[in-house]
Amino acid sequence: MLDTVGARVMALIVATTLPLAIIASMLAWHSYQQNVGNSALRTERDTQLAISEITTDLDQTHTLLDMLADGDISSGNALREFALVQMVSQHHYCLLMLTDAEGRPSVVLPSPSTQDPAICHSPENASPSMMSASARLPVAGIDVLKGARGPLLKFVVPILSNNSVSGYIVAIRTLGWQQNHLRKGDSRLLLGTETNSRHFLAMPDGSLYSLFPDRPVSVNLPPKAMARLQRDITAQSQHDVFTNQGITYAFQNAYGPVSLIVATERTAEESHALNIFLIRVSLIVGLLVLELLGVALGASIFLVDPLEKLALAVADWRRGALFAPRNNHSIPLEIRHLEKAFLRATRRLTQHEKALEQSARNQDMLIREIHHRVKNNLQVVASLLNLQASRIRSHEAREEFRLVRDRVRALATLHRYLYSENGLSALDVQSFLEELCSILLSANSMNAQTRIRLRLDIEHVLISPDQAVPIALIVTEVLSNALRYAFPGERAGHIVIALHKVVPPDPDKEGLVELKLGDDGIGIDAGQASESRTRREGIGMQLIRGFARQINADMTVSNENGTWYTLRFIPERPSLTALAMAREAINHDEDSVR
């Protein structure tokens, strides 16, 4: 990613400016958090005010009911006392009832007519859950009932007379307050008005009700907020504050299993703080982007473009053109010095390459001349042997001279093929063997129309000079022996020379080649030919075995339908000529420069 000069310059600029941008962003975030924190503070403050009002109201209820129980309350004055309590509590009670010691109602003060009946409706009002299972007596204490508009509190206060219970006072009231019963100026009327908050009471089953039962509202909270509140209710959490979708929620235990939830929306100032934060961050990012663009443009004009022109000049030079940098005094001094250094280096390198290639070409010509002279000398030797053989009267001696002549001619023919035009010092077996066999047939007064016919089935295979000499002499020996001994008299037949690439059973022998030579003549004793070298053999067989070992070939001899030699070997990798090595060295140096 940082391979180019432009990318590295950009990385340096980012590395130097990014810390400043991060510090500025952190300061903007801190300022935003301070404004956002105001919402949480307002919500918690409003929650504590509501909890304080609930606690104070419940304390007053306890005090009033205890005063009634400790006073001289009876069936005669109970209605008057209950009415006084209802008036003092601003008609807060749904029910005030006096019972006897057995729990039977004697005086009942129902809810006032100005109160919505739905507020006090609860299927648990007549439930015996507050009674003991045996005597069906009221159980002193406080129970939370689920009403249609919210939670209800059921108070049971015993009346003691002479250390015995003479009756009970039963009171049912709402946990919240009815706004239409509160006096003007009551602080409870101000809950949520200044902070734009909503107050809810939550039951253990997750039901949400308005804190003011005479002002019911539909509770439609976001799913994430509702899920977290449900988790707080299930875990019986005492306190929790969080923000979701711009609304701050405060969760606080109100009384017993009932919890208070206050939801506060952002004020205009807090929303403006968020916009200010976004504007600051956008400004920081914009300035950073503009700075990077400016630096990128300047670096491209004064640094990257001169380097690219220098790279193009080097690329043109590698393709064969002269290295000609476009000098410009507006580019940095270091790049101008680099161009001059490249210019001097390319000139010297070009001179060295030309000298190396010329030296390799001279060496190539020298090697060609050596092969040519060796071939000519061997042909002279073959001619001398042939001339000398013609003067010998002994048939066996003359044949031996001719065998030596054939071997020398094979080597002479080989030297004409050893130097290839494709840059490899290798031998194309197909064309070489075709010419060699033609020369051997002509030397033995044979041709394609004679009784002995030659069949060649040879693939194009390149072999090294070290293997070419043994193969040429093996073919010469086999072909000469077949022409001399395989077809006596006027016997006709065929001589076959085949060379193919085979699929080896062993993966380590990849590139295996099979050379098969033989004839369908009278054959030799194959068993004798396959015995150990310690047995006396003819010189031809000894030569064939020795040449087979030189090329690391596995040789088998068969005497079925004639004599057949099968050699399997792996051709050595051809080496490069001097000129090819020089060119490869030059190309390697150019690739390393890349």
UniProtKB/TrEMBL annotation:
Membrane-spanning residues: 6-29, 281-304
Source species, domain of life: Bacteria
Catalytic activities: ATP + protein L-histidine = ADP + protein N-phospho-L-histidine
InterPro entries: HATPase_C_sf, HATPase_dom, His_kinase_dom, Sig_transdc_His_kin_sub2_dim/P
EC code: 2.7.13.3
Tagged with keyword Membrane: yes
GO molecular function, one term: kinase activity
Xref: SMART domains: HATPase_c
Family matches, as SUPFAM superfamilies: ATPase domain of HSP90 chaperone/DNA topoisomerase II/histidine kinase
Domain called Histidine kinase: residue spans: 369-573
Protein keywords: ATP-binding, Kinase, Membrane, Nucleotide-binding, Phosphoprotein, Transferase, Transmembrane, Transmembrane helix
Record carries keyword tRNA-binding: no
Full protein name: histidine kinase
UniProt lineage: Bacteria, Pseudomonadati, Pseudomonadota, Alphaproteobacteria, Acetobacterales
